[in-house]
Amino acid sequence: MEIAQIVGLGLVATVFLLIIRQEKPVLAVVLSLAFAAVIFLFVADKISTIVGVITELSHRAEVNYFFLGTVLKILGIAYLAEFGAAICRDSGEGAVAKKVEFGAKIIIAVLALPIMIAILESLMEIMPR
Amino acid sequence: MNTEIIFTIAGIGILISILGIVLKQAQKEEQAQMLTLAGVVVVLILVVQLLSQLFTVVRTVFNL
């Protein structure tokens, strides 16, 4: 019944946030940060299990680990960027959130470049000249 | 699940808002400002530790 814990904690945090936001909006932002971190740390070992299973499957299928590693890195970057951007947007700083997302997109594009090149190369091999 | 930190932060927040109201009623706006600042710093120290833990976990999980 871990979902009950998460939902209950979410509701309690919402009530606290509503109370605190009226007087001290800064502390409300910090509280929502802490809540997001606690929830992620709660499910972190499960995510790590999922990642382990996917890695094991890719080993058995003899997929190049480089590609899976890149996909996992992109997942992590996307999660972190979304985490930061959501907090910024909640505090009314939409512009800062957009910049965070922009930075994450550029980093993800850089990470995805080798995969794109690999796809293009295999395409060139398949295509008749 | 360490939920204590959420309740700690919520408690500090409520305490500080109430003390701030009291100080404002007593015409001590400057002390109220200082109180808010101190509260934010204390809470920020707590959260920065949690965030560093979070970033470490994300880095190990996704091999960043």
Strand fraction band of chain B? under 5%
The biggest beta sheet of chain B, please?
Answer: none
> How many domains would you count in the coordinates of chain B?
1
What is the ordering of alpha helices and beta strands of chain A?
Answer: HHHH
- Structural classification of chain A: mainly alpha
Shape of chain A: elongated
Biggest sheet record of chain A: none
Run of helices and strands of chain B: HH
Give a count of the beta strands of chain B, DSSP E runs of length 2 or more.
0
Classify the oligomer: heterodimer
- How would you sum up the global shape of chain B? elongated
What is the first-to-last residue Cα distance of chain A?
60 Å
**What radius of gyration of chain A results from the CA coordinates?**
20 Å
Spatial gap, N to C terminus of chain B:
24 Å
Helical element count of chain B? 2
Largest interface: A-B, 35 and 34 residues
Fraction of residues in H or I helices of chain B: over 70%
Give the averaged pLDDT of chain A, no decimals: 91
Approximate helicity band of chain A:
over 70%
Strand content of chain A: under 5%
Describe this structure in words.
The complex is a heterodimer of chains A (129) and B (64). By secondary structure, chain A is mainly α. Chain A has a domain of 66 residues. Helices cover 91% and strands 0% of the residues of chain A. Chain A has 4 helices and no strands. In chain A, helix 3 runs antiparallel to helix 4. The longest helix of chain A is centred in the N-terminal third of the chain and has 36 residues. With 64 residues, chain B is mainly α. Chain B has one domain. Helices cover 88% and strands 0% of the residues of chain B. Chain B has 2 helices and no strands. In chain B, helix 1 runs antiparallel to helix 2. At the A-B interface, helix 1, helix 2 and helix 3 of A face helix 1 and helix 2 of B.
What topology emerges from the helices and strands here?
The complex is a heterodimer of chains A (129) and B (64).
Chain A: H1 2-23, H2 25-60, H3 65-90, H4 94-126
Chain B: H1 4-25, H2 29-62
